[in-house]
Design goal:
By secondary structure, this protein is of the alpha+beta class. The protein has 2 domains: 179 residues, no CATH class; 165 residues, no CATH class. Helices cover 56% and strands 20% of the residues. The protein contains 13 helices and 14 strands. The strands form 3 sheets. Strands 4-5-12-7-9-8 form a 6-stranded mixed beta barrel. A two-stranded antiparallel ribbon has the order 2-3. A hairpin with a 2-residue loop joins β8 and β9. α2 packs across α11 and α2 runs antiparallel to α12. It is elongated.
Length: 394
């Protein structure tokens, strides 16, 4: 019997047992769909993170308290950075244009009968210049207001819309942690980054934030190099001026490239974990196919005996059962791919999802491998049946 005939016989056998075939494919369908969906979401988040970090500006550097390894893990903890360090960095200004310290916390904000939990970021007056982020309405607070510890704020778009409910926000007073703050402006919309809404923030003077949290220790310092071609020199300059005051365990300086590389490493590990989890579904699906094929061998023992009695070779029997298993896997894989692509497009409404060619090919190849793997043993068992014993089987 030639290969084409084996395909025809295998296909007819699957059609004759439609329900069993559908249930057998179900594990592969779910597995392939999960692989594509999870890889797409992981790839989408990775692309989103890359674009967001790149969008901050190629000439930014970040100074964090404590020593951080490139994998993002704290090698040592330190909370020694203070506002005076911002001025220290600015003075070493051969390659540095500006710098802004930050103290971040969360607080309850109120306006009339509206209340919501927001992020409060204490920054210097140079924040908008460092991040090249302009106000859409009003203005940012001044250096004199920062030094005086005034209770003034600049709102992100989300806070302005949800808390103030539209209208002109300038000059209104909101309550943050029980204290009244005068709204000076609203920043241009920034969007979301890894699930965090950068517009759900109220920016207040750094000295005011220090009073609010009861500490002047900085969360980080953001430094703007004079241009992107001198970022490495700016990094060395920061290390030099900070090294006069602190040890290497007290601070870490990351460039945009290092931050991006660190995030990509973390997201790559996350994607591999997601692929591993989804692959378990495919493995379970393969075991399901093997079990059903073994049951099929038992149910079709007399059929196998008749075929061998009329001249079918051991090879023909083995090929037929392998083809049946592969057909089930490939058909299930094709359906899983379609469902995975549809699911990724649907998920893109809430989370960034990016369908890649390699994820589709990987899923389809995995499905084919599952079919071959799960079909070999049942096919071998069927091909080794003695025709006389098979014909006597009841």
């Amino acid at each position: 019997m030639n290969l084409l005939e084996s395909f025809r016989v295998s296909f007819e056998a699957l059609i004759a047992n439609k329900m069993r075939s559908v249930l057998t494919m179900l594990g592969v369908i779910i597995g392939v769909m999960a692989v594509i969906l999870l890889i797409s979401m992981g790839q989408g988040v990775k692309s989103d993170v890359t674009s967001q970090i790149s969008g901050l500006g190629s000439n930014l550097l970040f100074v964090f308290p404590g020593r951080l390894e490139t994998g993002g893990q704290h090698a040592s903890m330190s909370r020694k950075l203070v506002p005076a360090d911002v001025d220290l960095i600015k003075r070493g200004n051969t390659f540095i244009e500006n710098a802004s310290g930050m103290i971040e916390t969360t607080a309850e904000a109120k306006f009339r009968n509206r209340t919501r939990r927001i992020t409060v970021a204490g920054t210097s007056a140079d924040y908008s210049e460092v991040f090249d982020r302009a106000t859409q309405e009003g203005r940012f607070f001044t250096e004199s207001q920062e030094q005086a510890g005034r209770r003034v704020c600049v709102l992100g778009m989300t806070v302005a819309d949800d808390l103030l409910g539209g209208g002109d926000p300038i000059g209104k007073r909101i309550t943050i942690n029980g204290q009244k703050y005068l709204v000076l402006g609203v920043l241009e919309e920034k969007g979301r980054f890894m699930g965090q809404d950068f517009d759900d923030v109220a920016y207040i003077p750094l000295s005011t934030a220090a009073t609010m949290v009861g500490s002047d220790k900085l969360t980080n310092i953001v430094v703007k190099a004079k241009d992107s071609s001198h970022v490495a020199e700016a990094q060395d300059e920061i290390k030099r001026v900070m090294g006069k005051k602190y040890t290497s365990d007290d601070f870490t300086v990351f460039t945009q490239g290092e931050t991006l590389s660190m995030m990509e490493d973390i997201l790559r590990i996350m994607t591999l974990m997601l692929v591993g989890i989804a692959s378990i579904s495919l493995l379970v699906g393969g075991i399901g196919i093997m079990n059903i094929m073994l049951v099929s061998v038992t149910e079709r023992t007399r059929e196998i005996g008749i075929r061998k009695a009329v001249g079918a070779r051991t090879y023909d029997i083995m090929v037929q059962f392998i083809i049946e298993a592969v057909l089930l896997s490939l058909l299930g894989g094709a359906i899983g791919i379609l469902l995975g692509i549809a699911g990724a497009q649907l998920a893109n409404n809430w989370l960034p999802a990016e369908i890649t060619t390699w994820s589709v090919l990987l899923s389809f190849g995995f499905a084919a491998a599952v079919g071959i793997f799960s079909g070999v043993y049942p096919a071998y068992k069927a091909s080794r049946l003695d025709p006389i014993d098979a014909l006597r089987y009841e």
